[in-house]
Design a protein that fits this description.
alpha+beta
């Protein structure tokens, strides 16, 4: 139960004014622009777009600026704004095999058709502070190779030719939309992937790590990790055909998992899958590990009690906006609740003291 708090409007207005002043910081230092955030803090922008379920780098940059860099608050702002937008229709499934690839690596095949493309990554750098970045001089000139334009087949298709990996057949069922329908259990793979794609990166990462440490049955290899831009097409009823309405940057990960077979499936490799807005490798890999772990029932495996196998545990707790709302509400007024519990504790203490005196 909550009680009305009166007379707090002025305090709240002052708190907002103080927050805005803190956000601006030292006025002798130039204010950071949305373009600077969008271009120079791109990975933070990508996370806000992914977990906010809205691909708009400018709005994500605005949310980051408004939230003073608190990414979960920024994601909350984007989610709230998203609910105000009208929906005109649904796009066709994107063809990631036609991705304009900036980065493409495989841990299972050294010699890929088209080659390994390292792209922009921290993987091969020493984790040492680069103090040259503190010097606000002219940016160094860097030659960047253009993205690969030709079709780039997925690595797992090579294994599939030999029948060594499970075959995934396209589904004719219309995928459900988690942004418009409440999550229900049991959830299909479409809802699980949606939920994890907009789930908290840290939570997804931790659970994926748990599977690697033995809390679940996954022994995964990164079959392929790719980052690039794909066209988004939409059917226009008035025209009778689909047109390209734009493009989005995506990170896609397919893992190849060891599988010794079960009562229903022969020994083969199985798949895990992750797809995220922007450059978000850690999230995509973690998603693919969790996706495979959650498929234990479908593949006829035993449930060993690992958290990463428990669909309801994973999906009900991975949303950082829901978690934040439930956690932070306890700092709001609970005066009546606390007073009732205070009276209960006092009464219990009085009864316990009376019982002790009687026993003596």
């Amino acid at each position: 139960m909550y009680v009305a708090v009166k007379g707090g409007e002025r305090a709240i207005d002052n708190a907002h004014a103080w927050r805005d002043e803190e956000r601006r910081g030292d006025t002798s230092i130039p204010e950071v622009s949305l373009a600077q955030i969008r271009e120079q803090l791109a990975l933070a922008v990508n996370r806000v777009m992914a977990e906010g379920s809205l691909f708009d780098a400018d709005l994500a940059a605005l949310a980051i600026k408004q939230s003073r860099g608190d990414l979960i608050e920024a994601i909350f702002l984007i989610r709230a704004y998203r609910t105000t937008l009208p929906r005109f229709g649904a796009s066709r499934p994107v063809a990631t095999s036609k991705m304009a690839v900036d980065r493409r690596v495989s841990a299972t095949f050294k010699d890929l058709p088209g080659g390994q493309i390292l792209g922009p990554t921290f993987d091969y750098t020493h984790r040492l502070l680069d103090f040259k970045l503190a010097a606000e001089g002219k940016a160094p000139e860097v030659k960047i190779a253009p993205a690969t334009k030709e079709d780039v087949p997925h690595v797992t298709s090579f294994l599939n030719k030999d029948g060594l990996i499970e075959t995934e057949l396209p589904s004719n069922e219309e995928p459900r939309d988690l942004t418009r329908e409440p999550l229900e259990f049991p959830a299909g793979r479409d809802l699980r992937l949606q939920s994890m794609a907009r789930g908290d990166e840290g939570f997804i990462l931790s659970l994926a790590y748990s599977t690697q440490r033995g809390y679940g049955r996954t022994h995964a290899f990164v079959g392929e990790l790719r980052i690039g831009r794909v066209a988004v097409e939409m059917d226009i009823p008035e025209l009778g055909f689909a047109i390209e309405i734009g493009e989005v940057e995506l990170t896609e990960c397919e893992t190849v998992n060891q599988f010794k077979g079960s009562k229903t499936e022969p020994p083969q490799f199985t798949r895990g899958y992750g797809l995220v807005f922007g450059q978000s490798e850690r999230k995509a890999i973690a998603m693919s590990l969790l996706d495979r772990s959650l498929r234990w029932q479908e593949l006829g495996e035993d449930f060993v009690g690992a958290p990463a196998q428990d669909e309801e545990f994973v999906l009900a707790h991975c949303d950082n906006i829901q978690a934040t709302g439930f956690l932070e509400h306890i700092k709001l007024p609970h005066y009546v609740d606390f007073q009732s519990e205070l009276e209960l504790v006092r009464r219990l203490r009085t009864e316990a003291e009376a019982a002790q005196e009687a026993a003596e």
